[in-house]
From TrEMBL:
Residues 2-115 form the Response regulatory domain. SUPFAM superfamilies: C-terminal effector domain of the bipartite response regulators (SSF46894), CheY-like (SSF52172). This is Response regulator transcription factor. Keywords: DNA-binding, Phosphoprotein, Transcription, Transcription regulation. InterPro entries: CheY-like_superfamily, OmpR/PhoB-type_DNA-bd, Sig_transdc_resp-reg_C-effctor, Sig_transdc_resp-reg_receiver, WalR-like, WH-like_DNA-bd_sf. Residues 129-228 bind DNA.
């Protein structure tokens, strides 16, 4: 993968690019939003690692600008650790969120998740296409497309993976550990917090306000279950 790092903190940027270089990833780096947006449009990286606190433009606006012309995966790396900040970034179009300070192993795990998804999308055979329908919710696994009452929903790759895991195990409670292992390949404490945030954003998309339909049931302290409607 070719990875674009947009980070104004020299120390953090050096840590990230050194890690990428050590693990044989091709990378580009930018120290501000303007430079990062130029590289994103010209070089078309496979993944963007984005800091939110950039000197010339807030990272949320950078996400929105990129989403206006590309669906390339964006992993936010930020010191903003509140759930509200994570939800704002995910709603803007980020695919994942890593809170500073972070471990190198955790960063690499998140990149492997993106890499596996890109490989899957490139190699997925049309013969394997199947679908899932539950009430007004429909998933076309072959096209990686989710619709609600015929209207396509924009889900991040992580939200889509969570939904598919639940859909393929209708009626079964999937534990927090099972979900985090399946999504990120790890079970860090930060993964548990991220899972909660992703579940909240996913629910807002498939269970909009004003509806009595609830597809996902929470089992407090245990996990989540997809209900059959």
């Amino acid at each position: 993968m070719k990875i674009l790092v947009i980070e104004d903190d020299t120390t953090v940027r050096h840590l990230i690019v050194t890690t990428l270089d050590t693990h044989d990833y091709e990378y580009l780096s930018a120290k501000n939003a303007e430079e990062g947006l130029d590289l994103a449009s010209q070089e078309e990286p496979d993944v963007i690692l984005l800091d939110l606190g950039l000197p010339d433009l807030d990272g949320i606006e950078v996400i929105k600008k990129i989403r206006s012309w590309s669906n390339m995966p964006i992993i936010v790396i930020s010191a903003r650790s509140e759930d509200a900040d994570k939800i704002e970034a995910l709603d803007a179009g980020a695919d994942d969120y890593l809170t500073k300070p972070f471990s190198v192993d955790e960063l690499l795990a998140r990149l492997r998740v993106i890499q596996r998804r890109l490989i899957y999308l490139n190699e997925h055979s049309p013969q394997e296409e199947i679908s899932f329908t539950n009430g007004d919710l429909h998933i076309d696994y072959g096209a990686a497309c989710v619709t609600m009452k015929g209207q396509e929903l924009h889900l991040t790759p992580i939200e889509y993976k969570i939904l598919c895991l639940l859909a393929k195990n209708v009626g079964r409670v999937l534990t927090h550990k099972y979900l985090t292992q399946a999504i990120w390949g790890t079970c860090w404490e930060s993964d548990m917090a991220s899972l909660r945030v992703f579940m909240a954003t996913l629910r807002r998309k498939i269970e909009p306000k004003g509806t009595d339909v609830h597809y996902i049931q929470t089992h407090i302290g245990v996990g989540y279950r997809m209900m059959k409607l």
